[in-house]
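[recover] target loaded
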C-alpha cells in the first residue's frame, strides 16, 4: 500500500506551513498493485491522527497465533518496481525507519482484504508474507510492541515498516512521525509454547488439566438442549502469564457478544490462566463462535465443560 508519510498529531499542518507537503506524501496504490483498495467510506484528503482521543495504553498487543490458511506472498508491482515477498517471515530481522498511517486509511481495505483500524495493533510491510507477527522495538526508548502485518507498504526507500497509529503512539513516535526501530519476526508456535502452556496441553492430551475437554459432535448427534444443559464453554487459551491472558480477553471482547473471562487453575504446581467465553446456548452458536475465532486467526478453540 502506497501511503503518505505517516505523521503524528498536527504534523501535517506543520508540513504545510513549512511548504514541505511534497516530501510528506505520495499517491495511493490500489489493492491489485499490492496496497489497500478504497472501501465504501470516502477517504480524507490528507492522512493524520484522529481528532478524538483514546488511551492506546489499554489496547493490547497482537497475540501471535498459528496461521492455518494460505499466506498472501505473491509478487506484485508498485510505482514501476517489482516486489517479491518472502515465503517465511519467522526469522526476519531488520533495523531501519518506521512510519505510521492513520485517518486517511481508516476502515479502508488492507492488502490482506481486512479493514484497516488505526487503533488496531497492525502494520504494513513490503515483503513479509501476510499475515505475519513481528516485534517492533523503538531503538531510541527501548519500547516494544507486537503487531500483526496485514498490509503492504510503506513504499519509501528509507522506510521498512508502517505501523498503525496506535502502534506508533505506544512506541512513542506518533508526534515525531518516524522512528528508528528493530523489526523481528515471530514464530507463533514457539511464542505459544513459551507463553501459553494451554497450547502444549492441547497438543498433548495426556497432560490435559482435570477439566474434561469435549469435542463438538455433529449437530445431528448433539441436540441443542443437551449442549445448553451441559454448561459448555469455548476455551481459547491457557496462559502462565495473567497479563497475556488479559490481553487475549480484551481482544476477544471486541469480537464476540458472549461473555469472556479469565479463570486461574493449578496444574503441576503452576498456575494457568484460562481464557474462556460462554456459556454457549446451543451447538449452532458454538460452531459460529469457533468459526469466527478461526477466521480471526485466534487459533482453534476447544469446547470444554464448566469446571
Amino acid at each position: 500500500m502506497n501511503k503518505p508519510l505517516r505523521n503524528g498529531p498536527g504534523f501535517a499542518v506543520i508540513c504545510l506551513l513549512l511548504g514541505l507537503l511534497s516530501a510528506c506524501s505520495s499517491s495511493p496504490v490500489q489493492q491489485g498493485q499490492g496496497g489497500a483498495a478504497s472501501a465504501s467510506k470516502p477517504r480524507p484528503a490528507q492522512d493524520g491522527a484522529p481528532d478524538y482521543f483514546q488511551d492506546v495504553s489499554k489496547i493490547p498487543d497482537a497475540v501471535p497465533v498459528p496461521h492455518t490458511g494460505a499466506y498472501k506472498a505473491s509478487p506484485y508491482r508498485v510505482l514501476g518496481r517489482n516486489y517479491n515477498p518472502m515465503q517465511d517471515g519467522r526469522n526476519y530481522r531488520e533495523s531501519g525507519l518506521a512510519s505510521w498511517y492513520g485517518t486517511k486509511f481508516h476502515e479502508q481495505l488492507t492488502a490482506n482484504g481486512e479493514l484497516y483500524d488505526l487503533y488496531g495493533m497492525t502494520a504494513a510491510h513490503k515483503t513479509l508474507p501476510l499475515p505475519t507477527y513481528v516485534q517492533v522495538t523503538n531503538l531510541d526508548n527501548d519500547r516494544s510492541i507486537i503487531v500483526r502485518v496485514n498490509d503492504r507498504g510503506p513504499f519509501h526507500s528509507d522506510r521498512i515498516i508502517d505501523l498503525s497509529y496506535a502502534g506508533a503512539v505506544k512506541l512513542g513516535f506518533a508526534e515525531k512521525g518516524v522512528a528508528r526501530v528493530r523489526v523481528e519476526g515471530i514464530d507463533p508456535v514457539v511464542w505459544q509454547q513459551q507463553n501459553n502452556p494451554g497450547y502444549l496441553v492441547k497438543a498433548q492430551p495426556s497432560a490435559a488439566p482435570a477439566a474434561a475437554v469435549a469435542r463438538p459432535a455433529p449437530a445431528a448427534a448433539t441436540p441443542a438442549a443437551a449442549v445448553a444443559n451441559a454448561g459448555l464453554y469455548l476455551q481459547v487459551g491457557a496462559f502462565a502469564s495473567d497479563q497475556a491472558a488479559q490481553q487475549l480477553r480484551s481482544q476477544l471482547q471486541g469480537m464476540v457478544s458472549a461473555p469472556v473471562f479469565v479463570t486461574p487453575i493449578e496444574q503441576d504446581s503452576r498456575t494457568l490462566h484460562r481464557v474462556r467465553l460462554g456459556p454457549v446456548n446451543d451447538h449452532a452458536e458454538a460452531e459460529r463462535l469457533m468459526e469466527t475465532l478461526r477466521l480471526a486467526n485466534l487459533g482453534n478453540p476447544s469446547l470444554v465443560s464448566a469446571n
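[recover] notes: The two ends are 47 Å apart (CA to CA).
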